[in-house]
Amino acid sequence: MPIVNRIAALSDEMAAWRHDFHENPELLYEVHRTAGIVADRLREFGCDEVVTGIGRTGVVGVIRGRKNGSGKTIGLRADMDALPIEEASGVTYASKIPGKMHACGHDGHTAMLMGAAKYLAETRNFDGTAIVIFQPAEEGGGGGKAMVEDGLMTRWGIQEVYGLHNMPGLPEGHFATTPGAMLASSDSLEITVHGKGGHAGAAPHEAIDSVLIGAQIINALQSIVARNVDPLKSAVISITMFEAGTAFNVIPETVKLGGTVRTLDPEVRDLVERRIGEVAANVARAFGGSAETKYTRMYPVTMNHAREAGVAAEVARDVVGADRVNERLVPVMGAEDFSFMLEARPGAFVFLGMGDGPMCHHPAYTFNDNILGHGASYWVRLVEKTMPAG
Questions:
Q1: Could you give the CA distance from residue 335 to residue 352 in angstroms, rounded to a whole number?
Q2: Are 327 and 308 in contact (CB under 8 A)?
Q3: What is the dihedral of CA 125, 129, 134, 138, to 10 degrees?
Q4: Which of 149, 140, 145, 186 is nearest to 28 (CA)?
Q5: Residue 276 CB coordination number (10 Å)
Q6: What pLDDT, on a 0 to 100 scale, did the predictor assign at position 341?
């Protein structure tokens, strides 16, 4: 079953919405303009209920089918926030706001779900309730968690929840998903190394070199992945910040390291967190200093539920054909705060292929408007297939 005809007729309108959002990007929870437009459009479409301020600036729309004998309610989620990146895409509708850009396609996600909401509110050809969820602060702010904590699932009785993200490099209009772990957990770490300051040239032997200790810690941390983690499992430890010193001839008293950790398994996550603290402290001690580790858990593993991943793949096949759906995707080490929604309710996350082009978070990234119809059709068919009107 191809792209829904009515959705195809909405293509230009969805593209216009996206281009407007793209020109006016907003970060994290400060998505007031975007959320306001989404809420206004949902009201215009005839949604039965439109609620703002869920998870601070999230928007929820309720669309009831022409039947409700099933008593079923499913949630469909899109994200709205942009990134603090200076745009270099060259598109005619480029960001008007310096230092801000929709470099991950959330403008497209929002437009697709709006198109689906318009169709569903017009046709209501399903038995149950569809909840359209427009989330702020996916890019590091934990907006998914904020919405869940604000009663998203319980207030509307959501029983299953589904998410979608574009994927550069995956052929245009192709879908990919998998049961189980699909995206990694994302954690941050900060290590503060304490040494003893001194003269770097005249008397280094009287100091305890925090810079040397920091360098040794960076090297030693890689042994965790190489020698502590099961080689059939995955982990990434990346130190991306090293802050030290104020003068070329002074050994600094302290050094600060920062970085990210990614895992696909909760037990591996626990292991890595514990070992980072142990390795940092013991390496520092070996050189006469000390080290303190602050480990912050940010996003959990995006863990698809098996039945719902199967439903998502089946719906995708209905939209684009079996040869364009990969239902056994190799997990990706990126992270998603849709994971919080999947911890709260059964559901599944899917990728929708963009074709060739710069990856997400790149200043030259460009969303492919050709996939707007695929995404909106996926949402529509998901509702109609999981809650058939009979």
A1: 16
A2: no
A3: -120
A4: 140
A5: 22
A6: 98
